[in-house]
Amino acid sequence: MFHLLPWHILARDYPAAMANDIEDARKELDQEFNQFRENLGKIYEKLERVSQAGPTDDISELMKELEDTVGKVRTGGLIGSGAKGHREAREKWLELQGK
Q: Which of 87, 74, 68 is closest to 39 using CA atoms?
């Protein structure tokens, strides 16, 4: 048999638990954002290759590489969560804040 705690004891701990949830969600959001920023450099590298291409370069292939890189940064590729993970972490953080 189990005993229920009075509501005032449960309510006393609720704000602290909620604050921890918001804090954890914010940490996850920051982590996802930092991961995205790191991967954004890969897009800049591919874009620079396209920008520096000359008339004899295979522009179509360079553009394909850029598009593939953007897709991987957006979705996370085979591993990771990419910008999609940031979106999900942001939605969770906003939800916990009541926004």
A: 74
